[in-house]
Design goal:
Structural class of chain A: alpha+beta
Strand content of chain A: 25-35%
Number of strands of chain C: 0
Shape of chain C: globular
Order of helices and strands of chain A: EEEHEEEHHHEHEHEEHHEEEEEEEEE
Strand order of the largest sheet of chain A: 6-7-8-3-9-10
Strand content of chain C: under 5%
Oligomer: heterotrimer
Largest sheet of chain C: none
Radius of gyration of chain A: 24 Å
Order of helices and strands of chain C: HHHHHHHHHHHHH
Largest sheet of chain A: 6 strands, mixed
Number of strands of chain A: 19
Distance between the termini of chain A: 40 Å
Chains: A alpha+beta (about 325), B mainly alpha (about 280), C mainly alpha (about 280)
């Protein structure tokens, strides 16, 4: 449904995107994940037409829209800070996209109103149509923004850190709600986030970006379990890094086996409960490296000053150039 | 220029900029240029002569005197009012602020009229003043009063929003460390508000020196005695001494330009939104 | 600091309330309240009949029509062009923008008398501009047009400075949102941007209007001051004063002040309503 080829973008001297290729299948829910400056928002805005790329092509539904103005791309966009029209009621906001249509696509007023009602019902805000955005909570505003974007029946939904401005609890609720909505509607969607938990929870595929390049594309589980570059390994999930001949090895806090004859020994400096596990932190004997380990809470809590012997039973090895030289289990 | 997708076409942009610049040039720049051009119409000689006449010098002196009295007075008031309003909680604040703003909404002529009604020959205190041989109207004290009235809100209006934004934290910290009121004000508050204060004082001064309507009503236009620079400009102009009038006017215009430059520099240093509250 | 037994204000750690508040109140009363009260007292003393007779005489009515009319016309011109200026200053970058922005405040800093004679010099029959308009039969000086031009000068900063912060605050996102929803640039302007800055524009207009009605110095030179034709209300007050017709002066002043207060009230109402709507 979406095909990006060789997308490059510069802002003055600064290169935001270095030749991005990406394919998105119809109905997919894609996350663009990365830290600030990774270019993910720029890429999203180029797909929408809010920015124009310097090089490369953008195909939407088989059509080359590389130079098409945003108003003609028929794409739904949800902004981080909602961008609601504060002087209009909620209902008028939602119906806006329909009310600016001219020509044959234009619906009569009653039909527009009905459609707005329908969408407000969909986002569970029925009855709030005559309120103003200023009178709503953050989570409600974001849902209005979503309803407004959906009203034009876009072929694609783009969300720019949609929950970034919300409280943690509201964020969690909306995340779940968005996933359900996507399942029900099946609309191709791309959302940008720097929160990897969010990306892993919601997306069909995750696109990990860093400094204007794509580091890895894959299903959430694949990206988490088999990171292909040191950056991905480090950015997605928690990672312990140990120097090794030829580079370093990465393993996650839970990818360990406790063994009295384990190759590594952790001198426990700090212990706390983390969800369903005990988290033990400290320095390793020998290398002096800082390491975090998860131990099942079914066992006893590790004690301060205790030495835990273990070896990583599953790790990735990266050489100095950042290539993976040896994956999987040791 | 802009690769943003949501902006006007370059033609539209250029068009709007042109309209704006032509409008401003026509209504603002031309009059300003006219002042200087007319003042120097007969050359630098007559220009300087006009500024040296005894009446002109008296007018300049009086204007400076008026400013020297009214600006500090209103500055002290502005500081006191903002301190009371922004550092304490009490009902009626909004009313107080509205009252402070009143002189802003009164026509300059009316501002002069009210003092005539109070202190003029037929005014409320007219008889009492005559008895004690005190002149307020048609004398310098009247001009001072009218100017103080007109420029009353200037400093307060700058300081109140600024101090509201800054809050009380710094002062409370100082008090908790043992400072008394004056020390707190001098060492903590004043440095925080100095640019806003300067800004308010600048505007207050510009208005104090340039006020015309109110002063015209109370001064009696007595040459050499109760003529401020703006009044002197009027007198010269009505006598068809155009070079003279514009010469004095150009001094005032220069003052205005200096005020604008200083204001811009302050805004730049101080990061204030451009005169948003005027 | 003496402990206050009054409880109408919250106790505070900071000292100096007593001093600052009482000074503020005293100065305010002395300089502003008592003088203003005097006018109303005096007007009240006239009795209704006389008040109406001098406050709404034919000459006064002509003056009101002129003052309010030209102020409204000037306000409208400023509303239109001031919006363009604000737009250009907020949205675009061009060489000399800083200078232009500073210049907008010129009417605020320039003494009104200076503006008055400068404008007259420009538009008088032999003036820089007047000499081109004269042969075309367009008289500007000594007509209501000249007065309006002077008032445009005076009111210029009000609209620009009222609209600028609101426009800047609006930001690009809402425009982008409108674009993604399919709106053309013009639709975005008329349905999203303009309504959002409407209250600010109205406020700017009202401020310019209020200022224009009471303006004296910049107008009396260019207007020619012919009673019934180009005599503005403030000038009428001065003329009455010079003839010791205190009643007339007071009555007209009161009418003007009430009009000003009405306008201010309107501004406050607009702002309160818009704040309520947009959510504080």
């Amino acid at each position: 449904m979406i095909h990006l080829r060789g997308i490059t973008k510069r802002f003055g001297d600064y290169a935001a995107l270095h030749g991005i290729d990406l394919d998105v299948a119809p109905g997919e829910f894609i996350a663009l994940l990365g830290p600030s400056g990774s270019g993910k928002t720029t890429l999203l805005r180029i797909i929408a037409g809010l920015e124009f790329q310097d090089g490369g092509t953008v195909l939407l539904g088989g059509e080359d829209v590389s130079r098409t103005p945003v108003a003609d791309r028929h794409v739904g966009f949800v902004f981080q800070h909602y961008a609601l029209f504060r002087h209009m009621t909620v209902a008028d906001n939602v119906a806006f996209g329909l009310s600016v249509r001219r020509g044959k696509g234009r619906l009569p007023k009653a039909a527009r109103r009905a459609r707005a009602e329908e969408l407000l019902r969909l986002v569970q805000l029925e009855g709030l149509g005559s309120r103003y955005p200023g009178q709503l909570s953050g989570g409600q505003r974001q849902r209005v923004a979503l309803a407004r974007a959906l009203a034009i029946e876009p072929r694609l939904l783009l969300l720019d850190e949609p929950f970034g401005a919300l409280d943690a609890k509201v964020r969690k609720d909306l995340r779940r709600w968005l996933r359900d909505l996507h399942k029900a509607m099946g609309l191709t969607s791309i959302f940008v986030t720097h929160d990897q938990e969010e990306a892993l929870e919601l997306a069909d595929r995750v696109v990990v970006m860093n400094q204007g390049r794509i580091e890895q594309i894959g299903a959430p589980d694949a990206v988490y379990m088999n990171p292909e570059t040191p950056f991905v390994s480090h950015f997605v999930g928690e990672t312990n890094r140990l120097p090794a001949p030829g580079g370093e090895i990465h393993f996650r806090p839970h990818e360990i086996t406790l063994a009295a004859d384990g190759a590594e020994a952790l001198l426990v400096d700090n212990v706390f409960r983390k969800g369903a596990v005990w988290r033990a932190e400290g320095l390793l004997e020998g290398s002096g490296q800082f390491v975090e380990l998860d131990l099942p809470s079914s066992g006893e809590a590790p004690r301060l000053g205790e030495t835990i012997r273990f070896h990583p039973h599953r790790a990735r090895m990266f050489n100095a150039a950042g290539d993976q030289t040896q994956g999987e289990t040791r | 220029m802009s690769t943003r997708a949501t902006t006007e076409s370059p033609i539209m942009r250029a068009g709007l900029i042109t309209v704006a610049l032509v409008f401003l040039g026509f209504f603002l720049l031309l009059p300003l240029l006219a002042v200087f051009s007319e003042a120097l119409r007969e050359g630098a000689g007559p220009f300087l002569d006009a500024l040296h006449t005894p009446d002109a010098l008296a007018a300049i002196r009086l204007t400076l005197l008026i400013a020297a009295i009214s600006v500090p007075l209103n500055m002290i008031f502005g500081i006191a009012a903002s301190w009371a309003i922004t550092k304490f909680q009490f009902p009626g604040k909004a009313l107080l602020i509205t009252l402070i703003d009143l002189p802003f909404s009164v026509s300059p002529v009316v501002s002069g009229l009210i003092f005539v009604l109070l202190f003029g020959a037929n005014g409320l205190f007219g008889a009492w003043l005559a008895e004690h041989d005190l002149k307020i109207i048609f004398a310098v004290p009247g001009i001072v009063l009218a100017t103080v009235f007109i420029t009353f809100p200037f400093v307060a209006r700058e300081l109140i929003p600024l101090m509201l934004e800054q809050g009380k934290d710094d002062e409370e910290a100082a008090i908790s460390l043992g400072a008394n009121g004056w020390q707190t004000f001098w060492h903590v508050t004043l440095p925080n508000i100095r640019w806003g204060l300067l800004y308010g004082v600048l505007l207050c001064n510009a208005r104090a020196m340039g006020e015309f309507g109110a002063v015209s009503v109370v001064s009696g236009h007595i040459r050499g005695e109760t003529n401020t620079m703006p009044l002197h400009v009027e007198i010269l102009y009505n006598e068809y001494d155009f070079v003279g009038a514009f010469a004095v006017a150009s001094l005032l215009a220069l003052l205005a330009l200096v005020t604008l430059v200083a204001k811009t520099v302050l805004e730049w240093r101080f990061g204030l939104h451009a005169g948003a509250r005027h | 600091m003496t402990t206050s037994t009054r409880r109408w204000r919250q106790p505070s750690v900071l000292p100096g309330f007593g001093l600052s508040f009482s000074f503020t109140l005293a100065w305010l009363t002395l300089i502003v309240l008592i003088p203003l009260a005097t006018i109303f007292l005096k007007a009240a003393g006239l009795g209704w009949a006389e008040f109406v007779e001098v406050g709404f005489s034919e000459r006064a009515m002509a003056a009101y029509r002129l003052s309010f009319g030209t102020a409204a016309a000037a306000g409208l011109v400023n509303a239109v062009f001031g919006l363009v200026v604000a737009w250009v200053l907020v949205r675009y970058n061009f060489p000399g923008k800083q200078v232009v922005s500073a210049l907008v405040d010129l009417p605020f800093a320039l003494p009104t008398a200076v503006a008055g004679i400068a404008l007259t010099a420009l538009y008088a029959p032999q003036g820089w501009i007047g000499r081109f308009l004269e042969p075309l039969g367009l008289k500007v000086a000594f007509t209501w047009i000249g007065i309006t031009i002077a008032l445009v000068f005076i009111g210029l900063p009000f609209v620009v400075r009222s609209v600028e912060p609101v426009l800047a605050d609006l930001g690009r996102e809402v425009e982008e949102a409108a674009a993604t929803l399919g709106a053309t640039r013009w639709q975005t302007f008329t349905r999203v941007i303009f309504p959002a800055i409407g209250p600010a524009l109205l406020t700017g207009f009202a401020l310019a209007f209020a200022r224009g009605v009471g303006e004296y110095g910049s107008v009396i030179f260019i207007s020619g001051n012919m009673p019934g034709r180009t005599e503005i209300a403030p000038l009428l007050i001065v003329t009455q004063l010079e003839q010791y017709a205190y009643a007339g002066a007071t009555a007209i002043a009161v009418v003007m002040m009430l009009a000003s207060f009405a306008v201010l009230l309107l501004i406050n109402l607009i702002q309160a309503a818009s704040r309520r709507r947009m959510g504080a």
